[in-house]
Amino acid sequence: MIRRGLAGSSSIITVGNLQLDTVNHAAAYNNTSLNLSARELAVLEILMLKTGKVVNKEQMLEKLCNFDDDISDNALEVYMHRLRKKLDHSDISIRTIRA
Predict the structure, then answer these.
(1) In what order do the strands lie in the sheet with 12-15?
(2) What is the pLDDT of residues 13-34, one digit of tens each?
(3) 41: part of which helix (H) or strand (E)?
C-alpha cells in the first residue's frame, strides 16, 4: 500500500528556480548544479518541504538525527551557514528567527 502511494509522487521538489532531486540527492539553481554535502541536502529538503513556515531547531534535529548519529545545535548552525553561503547568488532566502 505504501509503495503504491509513493509511486505517483515526484522526487523533484521545486521552490522558485531551486530544484532538489530527492532520489538522486542533487540540487540545482537555474539548472546549475549545487555542490552540497549530504547533510546540507537533508537540511535543504526539510526547509523546502516547509517553505513559508517556521521550522525550529528541535524539528530540524529530529528529522536529521537517527539513533546512531547525533547532531549538535552548533553543527546545525554550521550546515545552515554553509547552505546560505552556497545559495548566496540566488534569490532564495533562509532566515533565522531568534526568540
Answers:
(1) 12-15, 18-21, 26-29, 32-34
(2) 999 999 999 999 999 999 999 9
(3) helix 38-49
pTM above 0.85, yes or no: no
Burial label, 27 (beta-carbon count in 10 A; 0-12, 13-18, 19+)? buried
Domains along the chain with CATH numbers:
2-86 (1.10.10.10)
Distance CA 81, CA 24 (A): 23
Q: Give yes or no for residue 78 having a pLDDT over 90.
A: yes
Would you state the cell numbers that stand for residue 13, as one nine-digit string?
Answer: 521538489
